[in-house]
Amino acid sequence: xxxxxxxxxxxxGEIALRVMRTARDMGIRTVAVYSEADRCALHVRCADEAYNxxxxxxxxxxxxxxxxxxxxxxxxxxxIHPGYGFLSENSAFAQRCEKEGIVFIGPxxxxxxxxxxxxxxxxxxxxxxxxxxxGTQDPVADVQAALTAASEVGYPVLIKAVGGGGGRGIxxxxxxxxxxxxxxxxSSEAQSAFGNGALYVEKFLRPVRHIEVQILADEHGNVxxxxxxxxxxxxxxxxxVEESPSQFIDDDLRQRICQAAVExxxxxxxxxxxxxEFVADNAGGFYFLEMNTRLQVEHPITEATTGVDLVRQQIxxxxxxxxxxxxxxxxxxxxxxxxRIYAEDPKTGFAPSxxxxxxxxxxxxxxxxxxxxxxxxxxxxxxxxxxxxKLIAWGPDRGEVxxxxxxxxxxFVIGGIQTTIxxxxxxxxxxDFVAGAFDTEYLERILAEEQGWTETQTDQKKRxxxxxxxxxxxxxxxxxxxxxxxxxxxxLKTGDPWQMTGRRNVLGRGxx
Length: 512
What we know:
Layout: E1 6-9, H1 13-25, E2 29-35, H2 42-46, E3 49-54, H3 65-75, E4 79-81, H4 91-100, E5 103-104, H5 109-116, H6 118-125, H7 143-153, E6 157-161, E7 170-173, H8 176-194, E8 199-203, E9 209-217, E10 223-235, E11 238-244, H9 251-267, E12 272-280, E13 286-292, H10 299-306, H11 310-318, E14 335-342, E15 344-345, E16 351-352, E17 355-356, E18 358-361, E19 368-372, E20 379-380, E21 387-395, H12 398-411, E22 413-415, H13 421-428, H14 431-434, H15 442-449, H16 457-477, E23 491-493, H17 497-510
Helix pairs in contact: 4-5, 7-8, 12-13
């Protein structure tokens, strides 16, 4: 049994705060890390200690493995929780933690490496009963090889990053010309995002629903599922709305999908929390998509319907404890929905919206939960993912959840920046959404129909030029708001009221 009383959270924003809250419930002290851009961030103020780990770009801070390991050792943290994004699915990071004797609160490095390589994952799962989408079993060497594979699979196809995830490094192509045009773009995007430009070809199925299954597995061979989540409301393969249970699948399909997820996890000796993702078609078929070897952004809806704290389970599993939950004890109740609130403006092609948060109003009331990192005076920058909050609602049935979500979205006020709240609120009123009549391309169709929500190539070029200028300005002047008591090479003891006062002063200066 591994014992630890202090963990470092190798992340920022709402997920860092989410992990801290469970750690505090368990009597575990927390160490925050922050970049220059996040000096005044809420997760820094809420941790027991905070360490500056570098400049604002993620490559110089949150992705710096050496600095994170150094900080964990310096702070005396015995374990690291990676959150999601950044290094959460980086096998080299997990391996380094293992080498340094630091507990990685997540799966083994072998689990991450296997499922992070989409081709290797497809090969491994051929030994299971999980249905696979038709496609290549090896990376395609070049565009000509991709064209040959696409003709064999049949258009439309997806060209996908071998080492990818999160909707990046993917292109839908309907013919040879589109494949030729999109191949180099997808490869470059994959290289930039994952350090691996290799691609493979997969049949593009439509219409489909995106169904995923939450699993938990310990090192003693116990594996359970916590039922499914539906994530079909997407824009460019990025999820905006998630719900549980899915209205699309019946009990028979639900059982088959959930059992397939458990079989996949067991076949690779998985450990920790993970999510197995599938697509399901109208004929009752389903196909393996990928496995995310981390905590999902949408995990709160599973928590809302099952009552299971997934972060607590991650920590207990990392300690070496056997699962205390049996499959027959998982009895989901009611329905839950999560909407992601991004600092983006849908009316300008979802351009990032930067600025200072003001006039903040956070919704509340029965069965409403907000996971976020917002506060008045918070600076929203271009350095990181634009997700600023997640709004979660629970109810005895989906109809009540939607009504509760409407009220909560009406109550949610974020001044100073543009957000996706109006888009999400409008979605809740659409009869087709309320009826559950949608698929993974539904939101894209709506956006294409809305005048003013598309932009010309000239508009795009102008927007890119403006954003580039803003980034240069931010990089030039962004360091002027600093906290003099923050030392780059030393901890900030966040429990010290005098240092808390200093940070409040900094926030006050930054909010003017």
